[in-house]
Design goal:
By secondary structure, this protein is α/β, with parallel strands linked by helices. The protein contains twelve helices and ten strands. The protein binds alpha-D-glucopyranuronic acid (GCU).
Length: 426
């Protein structure tokens, strides 16, 4: 009888707390304990002027807010002009004739041994003209996105991982196709879209080395002493890489560079939002489970906090961001302003109910609170500040869903992004 009690207790606990089970402990997951806070005003300029027209937004307030995010959150993007060049390394019809797969190496300088990033590009094999395209960074190398045996295994630094067979910080055959469930490549191509992806470690390996490796070798080669408090962290480096990828997609004849949606999951969702905020050429921006430092409102302190993220990932944000550890109310911005920087372009925020660490309600609320800027620019924001039913997306000028399941990218997520893209990119 006793022996039965423990499993029953565990089962009851899981049923009672389905959403927090398995999340890092010692953080707030209780809505009743979210502190009162006031969000910084979107539509009042630093000098106190009321922003009441699109022109004032574009000329005054938007540049102010972009600068605040550069100074206080992510740091500046590298400002170094680079001469990109591209080498096509493979071209083949795959997916039973459905898809044209290309691998492009994008060099940042003339040095063929210098930093470069490899972009895997899928487009419909039957396409008669350039197609709209999703562009996103991946976590584990282009070879992890599809079981295709011909995709080159990344030679960049990867995190050691016995499940993926990554040893000595190098990827092996064992990780081929291991992330395919997150990329829905066939579904995307069948719907007439392209998919372009790059391993984020090609741009900046995701560990703290004081910003020497990856693109930093070329964007700040002669730096001595400490970095400025607003020098960009890795999220800024990855965002810069996405814009350089877009430079290439714009001249690529298979992709319509004016209809590119930038997509990212988790830390790479923080990155897609920041890339979209900086680069208005991205027509649509998708944040998948981006959480703290991405879509979520920092002031809610629900799940992951500013202090925790700056401590676990000291290289993601700028140095100044650390001043807001346990001090969120002093930040001159919150993340509804990041959404507003993307307006009037189409933004999609997706949450998962099992991902309370990322604060689903806070992700939705930042999109909701950006509404006045969408409206000023002739678009509609989210209709309600309440979470919609599970698996019931809201698709309009902006999009949101919260789905069943955990922190991940699923076919359900992609099916929504495709429907939303049909509204905004077709
Ligand atoms: C950690 C981190 C998150 C991040 C996630 C990821 O969980 O705390 O902020 O989004 O990693 O990128 O996978």
């Amino acid at each position: 009888m006793r022996r039965m009690l423990l499993p029953v207790f565990i089962m009851l606990f899981v049923v009672a707390c389905p959403s927090t089970f398995g999340q890092p402990q010692g953080f707030n997951y209780d809505e009743a304990k979210v502190p009162d806070f006031e969000l910084p005003s979107l539509l009042t300029s630093a000098s106190g002027k009321k922003i009441a027209s699109a022109a004032d937004w574009n000329n005054i307030r938007r540049p102010e807010i972009l600068k605040l995010f550069q100074e206080h959150v992510f740091g500046r993007l590298p400002d170094r002009e680079v001469q990109l060049s591209v080498e096509e390394r493979s071209r083949q019809t795959v997916h039973d004739g459905l898809t044209l797969r290309r691998e492009l190496r994008i060099f940042f300088t003339e040095d063929r041994n210098g930093p470069a990033m490899d972009m895997l590009v899928y487009t419909p094999a039957a396409a008669k003209s350039a197609v709209p395209c999703f562009l996103g960074l991946n976590f584990h190398g282009n070879h992890s996105v599809d079981p295709d045996p011909a995709i080159a295994i990344t030679k960049s630094w990867v995190r050691n991982d016995s499940k993926r067979g990554n040893v000595n910080n190098r990827a092996t055959e064992a990780s081929r196709g291991k992330s395919a469930s997150r990329w829905a490549a066939r579904m995307i191509v069948k719907k007439g879209y392209g998919l372009a992806t790059i391993y984020y470690g090609d741009i900046d390996p995701d560990f703290h080395d004081e910003f020497k490796n990856g693109i930093h070798a070329i964007t700040e080669p002669d730096r001595e002493g400490d970095r400025a408090s607003d020098a960009g962290g890795s999220i800024s480096a990855w965002s810069w890489g996405l814009s350089r990828a877009l430079d290439i997609l714009i001249v690529d004849r298979f992709v319509d560079g004016e209809r590119v949606a930038v997509f990212g999951h988790s830390r790479l969702g923080k990155t897609s939002l920041w890339a979209g905020a900086n680069d208005p050429r991205f027509r649509m921006v998708i944040s998948n489970n981006s959480g703290c430092g991405g879509a979520a409102l920092s002031r809610r302190r629900f799940g992951e906090t500013v202090k925790r993220i700056n401590t676990s990932f000291p290289h993601w944000f700028c140095l100044k961001h650390r001043e807001y550890n346990d001090n969120e109310d002093a930040m001159p911005v919150d993340h509804h302003m990041l959404m507003a920087l993307i307006a009037p372009r189409a933004v999609y925020v997706a949450s998962a109910v099992g991902d309370q660490w990322a604060d689903p309600r806070g992700e939705m609320l930042s999109l909701y609170h950006a509404g006045p800027v969408f409206e000023l620019l002739g678009r509609k924001g989210l209709p309600s500040n309440q979470l919609p039913e599970l698996d019931n997306p809201v698709h309009a000028d902006v999009g949101y869903h919260i789905r069943t399941g955990k922190h991940d990218v699923t076919d359900f997520d992609w099916a929504q992004y495709l429907k939303f893209a049909d509204l905004h990119l077709k």
